[in-house]
Structures are given as structure tokens and as C-alpha cells.
Amino acid sequence: MTSKPQRLLSLDFFRGLTVAAMILVNNPGSWAHIYPPLEHATWNGCTPTDLVFPFFLFIVGVSIAYAMGSKKSDKTTHKQIILKALKRSITLYLLGFILAMFPRNFADFSFLESLKTVRIPGVLQRISVVFIFATVIFIKMSEKNILRTMITLLVVYWALMTFVPVPGVGPANLEKETNLAAWVDRTVLTEAHLWKAAKTWDPEGLLSTLPAIATALFGVLVGVYLKRKDVEPSTKISWLFTVGFLTTIAGLIWDLQFPINKSLWTSSYVLYTGGLATMFLSASYWLIDINQYKKFTTPFVVYGVNAITVFFLSGLMPRVLNMVKFDQPDGKQIGALAYFYKTFFVPYFSPLNASLAYAIVFILFWYVILWIMYKRNIIIKV
């Protein structure tokens, strides 16, 4: 009989903080008025917003180690574990697909027409792919081989992006539309299925998924070490914080040759964000799980236990509400949420603060719903 997987409150806290930040930066009142830390870097570089997605994939890796670690030694269960993970991966991808399609008409032939232009990559889609690959690697490989695989992915991606000539373009480069990853996206997916804001490349594209898998494997290795029972908690924290610090520095050094870039998910970006995530988790582990400072964690744990659910619903709700239209004095119509923003925020704040206040209210709205679910022990497992 297998024991119930050990659970880290600090991991739930970290996951909740990350998904709340993800919702915050994805839902400003106005995309024209955003404080710089709440925007992605224009290209190279890393803002606080650029930490959110890699932190989540890192957490996915840690969660895999915690949820599946006790079953790994029994090889007779491997097929069952992988099939279950594949089912979850497909579910995540379909949720992302629904967000990409909605609110297109699912009732008539326009649905079939929309398939010709729907975006194939996306945030949930990348999570789904990373999750299944990281699961299989964790189940089938030793810790040393997981580390080797992670390093191989980073080195191979670096070599591809910096040495392989881009067909039809010329020498290898790291510019937005002419790098190898952009060429792969356009060639395999075609421009019709890419991110509409760019059309010629996708920030969750095919080739850049390789280092994204490495981000999750980073989390897997941290999770495996945290689970060890033969190491004192103080030793764990010391080693993890040291490794996190050194990896962050390594990412900054690699940045000099292979720039930190979220859209390309560069290898330096993996090391930099993975190192920061490791230090943050180790500090949270020391504070919350070891020293039992828990009172401040509840709002974030509430988000953390239903992370995918709230991410999906918070993305779906604006699409639904903006189907309801309100007439404006100039004769134009705007969606319900845009009307709400213009009526209750714009008149009372500066443009930047109105946009931020709206995003905070959006976060608090979902917190109330999630708190009710949490108190009733309603956890929707995707």
C-alpha cells in the first residue's frame, strides 16, 4: 500500500502566489496603461512579470516529484502513471484550445472555419506538453540522468539558436522574426496558427518548448531533494539556496552571450529564473514548513489548490462578459467588462492607477470564489 504523497504548504503558497500574479498581469484595466514591472520585457531582459510563467513550470516539476515520487520505484505502475499523466496533459491542452477558440461560434460551420486560424500554442498548451514530458522523464530516469537531460536540452537549444543558419534568412540570429525558433513556428504551424500579436512567431512556440521542459526538470530535481528524509531541513535549505544563487549567477553570465529572453525561453533564462525560483521556494520552505509561520499564507494557498481552475475561468470570464454589449454616447458598443472599467475606475484614478485598481479588484473577486471553494474543500483536479 502506497503512502499518501507528502504535501508542502510552502509549495501551495508558491503556486498560489504565482497564479495570482499571472492573473494580475493578464487582466489590466487597459493594456495601454500598465506599470513597467507588470509588463513583459520588450525583447531581451527580464521584468518581474517574466518570472511568472517559468516559476509556474518550475512548480509543475516540483509537484511531479512530490506526487509521483513514492510510485516511481514500482515499475509495474509506470504505464498507469504515464497514461494518467497523458490524460491530464490532453485535458490541459483542450482547456487552452477552448480559450483560443472562444467566443467563436461552436454551434455552426464557423467553428470549422475558425479551426483554420485558431492559435495552436498557448500557455495551457505549453503546460500540457511540458507536464507529460517531465513526467515521463522523471518516471523513467535516475536523478543523474534527469540532470543530464536538462543540461542537454539547454546546450542543444543554445547550439541550434546560435549556430544553425536560418533557412531563407541567413546566419543564426536572435531577432524577433528571423531567429530559428520563429522559422520553425512559421514552417510547421503556419502564420495562421501563431500568436495574433506577432503573426510571424509565437512566445509559446515549438522549438522553445525544449528549454521550457528543462525548467520543469529543474523543479523536478529540487522536489526530489526536498523529499529526501536522510537530509536535515537546515541542510536542504542551505544547499538549495546555494544552488539557486549560483544558478542565477550562471544565467546572468550566459546572458552575455545568449541573452535572457522570455519569448525565446533562452537557456540563460532557464538558469536565471530556475535559480530565483529555487531560492524563493527554499526561503518559503524554511519560513512556512520548518518555522510554521502560516497565517499569511492562506490567501495564496486558496489560489494554489485550484490554480489551473482559476487560471482557466479567469481567462474565460472576460470573453463571456464582453459578449454583452453596452451602447456608448458616440454610438459605438463596448463589452461589459470594458464598461465596468470605464464607469467605476477611469473617472476616479489616474490612467495607470485605474488600470492597476481594476486588476486588483479582479484578483479579489476570484479570491472570494476560491475562498468559498477552499472552505468547502472543493478542489477541482485537472
UniProtKB/TrEMBL annotation:
It comes from the Bacteria. InterPro entries: DUF5009. The chain crosses the membrane at residues 12-31, 51-69, 90-107, 119-139, 146-166, 205-226, 238-257, 269-288, 300-321, 355-374. Keywords: Membrane, Transmembrane, Transmembrane helix. Residues 36-176 form the DUF5009 domain. This is DUF5009 domain-containing protein. It comes from Pedobacter montanisoli.
